[in-house]
Design brief:
- The complex is a heterodimer of chains A (217) and B (245).
- Chain A starts with 9 loop residues before the first strand and ends in a 5-residue tail after the last helix.
- Chain A is of the alpha/beta class.
- A 6-stranded mixed β-sheet of chain A has the order 4-5-6-1-7-8, with helices on both faces. A two-stranded antiparallel sheet of chain A has the order 2-3.
- The mean pLDDT of chain A is 89.
- Chain A has helices spanning 21-29, 70-81, 86-94, 110-122, 140-155, 190-197, 202-212; strands spanning 10-14, 40-41, 44-45, 55-58, 128-132, 159-164, 175-180, 183-188.
- In chain A, helix 3 packs across helix 4 (110-122) and helix 6 (190-197) crosses helix 7 (202-212).
- Helix content of chain B is 78%, strand content 0%.
- Chain B contains 10 helices and no strands.
- With 245 residues, chain B is an all-alpha fold.
- Chain B has helices at residues 3-18, 21-41, 46-78, 81-86, 92-121, 130-151, 158-175, 187-193, 197-209, 216-239.
- Classes of the chains: A alpha/beta (217), B mainly alpha (245).
């Protein structure tokens, strides 16, 4: 597959479970052993040490310390990222965890835990954010708020690549990458996708693409 | 490598331990209970307790830190926090150094407690000073940590990690001379014992408790412990992969 992600935009990576979304994201972050091919991130090869300050990654399973409090987690990762202390309170506000700072992560709900993980990815103000299913397990209100945050970040120049297997989030994205069985099925804006398939609902549009067996682009 | 990240990591490990008071209690109480047990097991043979007690004070931290580190590092691998750290501006040596500082400090407290019990309350003798035993105990703890870190790469579950203790630590305890003088073992075991790091740890402790004047041999043992620790840390660093399948 071959694809590009525009700077300062929200790109959605969608497709059924097991289609390779996480593998693709890990390849972009540079933690995936890849069989071949080339991944360029912000003009550098993926995994380049210089990118560690510039790329934020949120794994699908919340990768934070369950035996530490929210604040302790954020303070530690802020030190590693080289972010100032004040950033901890800022990211806690962004993900709606104000008032939970003292709570041990292991005692939080699944959605709260994944928000701690998201907050951690935001600490270093990365230029590129790779978020693997950031809204899974969140209530609709919070989900809407987070999407608003994503767009604010994009307006500020951050590039976001967000995976989801929920098609109703597809409409929130500036551009969509639809994956199936390890391949790229479509690389289009939501409007283009609707136009091409004649379906208003993006979920149906995706299904139509699969049925048509339409090759990439 | 950055001092800020190294110390932040050490602090984070200590925060984690602090959240777990039961582990702290076990870390401090178990060696004391075992030493106390030894004292009364050898009630009728006080010379034997005098012989085995001081080295034991210096070996407990090795055993405990081996186990604690291998489990902690395994958790770091399985919960994804290691992968996250590997995407961040953190040098592998920051992580290893942070672990070393945190567990070294815990070992120092552990050694202080068990030495206080052994040398003040139970009448063990340290002709060259208790501080020497405590220092060796901390060195052994860091050795145990380095080995634990390395072997954690070969465990995929906590059950496996726990089994590494009998697999890697017990044979070394048997062969190091703690229970039977190495010269009395089968020749092949005697030869093998030279290849095991705990042999040098035990020898150093033995020299530190014997009334004979200290010689360069103690320094040689200490040098071996330091060299093996550094080698294990280097091997451990190799097992911390930035890219994984």
């Amino acid at each position: 597959m071959s694809l590009g992600v525009a700077q300062g935009s929200v790109t959605g990576l969608l497709g059924p479970s097991g289609c390779g979304k996480t593998t693709l994201m890990r390849a972009i972050v540079g933690v995936q052993l890849i069989a071949g091919g080339e991944v360029q991130v912000l003009g550098l090869p993926a995994g380049d040490p210089r990118l560690r300050h510039r790329v934020g990654y949120m794994t699908q399973a919340p990768s934070v310390y369950a035996d530490l409090s929210v604040e302790e987690n954020l303070r530690y990762f802020a030190s590693v990222a080289g972010a100032p202390r004040g950033r901890v309170a800022e990211v806690a506000r962004v993900v709606g965890l104000v008032g939970r700072e003292r709570q041990v992560v292991g005692s939080l709900s699944g959605g709260e835990r994944s928000r701690v993980s998201l907050a951690t990815a935001l600490l270093g103000r990365p230029e590129l954010l790779i978020l693997d299913e950031p809204t899974v397990g969140l209530d609709p209100v919070l989900r809407t708020e987070l999407w608003r945050t994503f767009h604010e970040l994009a307006d500020g120049g951050t590039t976001l690549l967000i995976s989801s297997h929920v098609m109703d989030e597809a409409g929130e994205c500036d551009k969509l990458l639809l994956m199936r069985d390890g391949g790229l099925l479509a690389d289009a804006t939501p409007a283009q996708l609707r136009g091409r398939t004649g379906e208003q609902d993006l979920g149906r549009a995706f299904l139509a693409l699969i049925e048509a067996g339409e090759p990439q682009r | 490598m950055s001092a800020r990240v190294t110390f932040a990591t050490a602090q984070r490990v200590l925060w984690q331990v602090r959240r777990d008071p039961r582990t702290i209690a076990l870390l401090l109480a178990v060696p004391c209970v075992l030493l106390l047990l030894m004292r009364y097991v050898f009630d009728g043979k006080p010379q034997s307790f005098q012989h085995i007690g001081p080295p034991l004070c210096g070996l407990f931290p090795f055993i405990v830190m081996f186990l604690v580190t291998s489990i902690t590092m395994l958790r770091e691998r399985t919960t994804g926090t290691l992968e996250r750290l590997m995407t961040m501006p953190l040098a592998k040596l920051d992580l290893l150094g942070g672990y070393g500082i945190a567990f070294g400090l815990i070992a120092a407290v552990q050694a202080a407690v068990v030495c206080t019990l052994g040398f003040l309350a139970l009448g063990l003798h340290a002709p060259h000073g208790v501080w020497l035993i405590a220092l060796l105990a901390i060195g052994n703890a860091v050795l145990g940590m380095a080995l634990g870190l390395f072997v954690s790469a070969f465990a995929t579950t906590e059950f496996q990690a726990v089994q590494f203790m009998p697999a890697i630590v017990f044979p070394q305890l048997l062969l190091c001379g703690l229970f039977v003088a190495r010269q009395l073992m089968a020749p092949v075991l005697y030869d093998l014992s030279w290849a095991l790091p705990l042999t040098y740890a035990y020898d150093a402790l033995q020299r530190a408790t014997a009334p004979a004047p200290l010689t360069g041999a103690l320094l040689r043992d200490a040098a071996v412990i330091v060299a093996v620790t550094l080698a294990s840390l280097a091997l451990g660093a190799l097992t911390l992969r930035r890219r994984t399948p």
